[in-house]
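Regression report. Comparing outputs from two consecutive submissions.

Submission 1:
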Amino acid sequence: MPKSQEEIVRLFFNYLSKSNYDEAKEFMERQRLVFLNNAWPKAMFDILCDFALAEKNYYDTNFEPSKNKMLERKEDENYLDFVYKTLYQDLEKLQTEVDDNYVIKLITTLLQFISVRLQFLELYDKLYEIGSLNSWINFSELSETVENIQNDLSNFSPIDQVLRIVRYELDCIQHLFKCHEHLGEWSYFDSLISLKESSDAFILWEKCYQNKEAWRFGSLFMSKSTLPPLLLWFKRFKHMTISKFMLYFYGILVRQSSLREVKNTSETKNLHFFTKMQQLKQK
């Protein structure tokens, strides 16, 4: 029985919300051959297939500075920026050619979503440059940038399913930035709360990728990791933030727990914090 266009869109974005990007693309390719040929122009199917691939490549990009992969990373960044901007232009053009109200609504929401994605790419590019230069980081400014993205992110029905993952991403990075901001003020409780909220968001975000598609690049594929490079970067950033928190409030943590517990936590998270503190004390 032919599916309605609303049902097809719902199923497509349901695949994306579960991080099944290849399945989403294959599903839309099947629909292009069977359904909606009269209701939708061929370009709409092509755009949605390319959108699914762009979303997968977005999470597959490594935003961490590396001298050996500087050129590769820059090519990935330029590619993604080009793809999303091309999709945006194609959607704008298609918007003037269709008269179906539902398709027009879908195009409008996709344009808004892609605009948010482009802001994300700009943010990660800024973080990459900061990391490459090893310069001082203004976390207040970064937090403000994330807040601006959040303000542009609303319920884009009919694609609000996939926004769940985007919100996890925003919440995770926003609270990490806030934690560093509070650490700069030596605020123990505010830092702890931000760290907890970031960890909660990351746990929910990580669950979206459990037992999902294998990811493409080198060591990740060899290690059979189910997490894309972007989440692995977030995981390292979170652990680095925990390490900094433990450094700032080492005395409080030891008094509230024990030296052994602090050491075990450090070793469990592979932070090497305790060893570095011992080495510093010996010096």
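Submission 2:
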Amino acid sequence: MPLAPSLPRLSASLPFALLALGLVAFGAQAQPSLSVQPGTAKPGDPVLVAVRGVEGMPSGTLAGRPLQFFETSGAWLALSGLPVEQSLGTVAVKVTAPRPAQGKALELAGTLDVVEPGYPERQLKVAGKYVKPPASVKARMAEDRAAFAAAFAQPFASPLFTENFAWPRQDRITAPYGDRRSFNGKLQSQHFGVDIDGNTGDSIFAANEGTVVMVRDCYSSGGTVIVHHGAGLYTTYFHMSRMDVKTGAKVQQGQKLGLVGKTGRVTGPHLHWGVKLDGLWVDGLSLLKLDFFGKPEPRVATTETPAALPSPAPSQNEGTATVTATP
């Protein structure tokens, strides 16, 4: 299984895959261009679209889904996601940009190849209480769903972060995004997060700058923290044994959010790390590969000294899992 890296990688930043070039230059300004990361995507991947060399905010679509652009140094960026149900094949990227000097809009177009994700199948045997919640908790679960909906309803804003995303902790991945889970022989759910191994009491860190929009003890996800990063993007941290932040707090990349636990409907201690983007649960591992600022790939997010970090080791919790579907 893959490991969350413990040190910065020294490889060059992933280059944008150039999709289309405009034909008109504006003096010393770069020619209009449209580019996308990644060059090839899977269903469930986040996608970063960049437009350069235009005079104002563009608009556009990715696979028919509207794009919301924000301005960064020298470019307009839009962050969107592909649904996990996205059909394989080639999808269209279409952008319209204002061009006041010419009196008409500039049209840029490209394509993105969507390939087979290869989601694994997992067969798990668990106690019956993990498969069907008792009727007595239905009201609590409804309150949890309402709290999640409110947390994910933040107005669209420019990014609150200035660094690429980083791992929230260093350890082995025990379950990737997208795996299909059968409990006691019956298909129950698909996993919309990344399970990172850990022992109760291990530290969990913010994957990037943002604002805490929920801190709550939930029936299914246990101790839960949600961080809003702007640009329609949130990261979630489930099953925590202790939460060290409060709703409304501003957090920095690497700031300690709390501790690994086994709270909620799980079979053992671990961090379930989720990423929600534009209303879709997307793959956190793919988010880590996106280069927003032309910087090297991200490292483990931590403000602790390197000596305080555990070295990657064989899992002590092989087979532990988040049992219920993500809210």
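Expected: both submissions complete independently.
Actual: both completed, but the second showed a warning that disappeared on reload.
Relevant detail on submission 2: The helical segments are 128-131, 138-151, 284-287.
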